[in-house]
Amino acid sequence: MTSESPTAVARGAALLVLATAAAGCTVVEQEAGISVSVTVDATDLPASEGPALDAAWVGIRSVELLPCAVAWHPLDLLGGPARADHPVDAPTAAAFPGPVDLLSGGTTVRIAPPPDEHCTVRFVLEPLGDETKAHTASVGAATAAGETLTDRVAWLDLPLALTVDEDHPTAALRLSFALADWPAAAAAGPDALFETARSAVALTLD
Question: Rounded to an integer, what distance in angstroms lies between the CA atom of residue 105 and that of residue 111?
Answer without folding.
Answer: 20
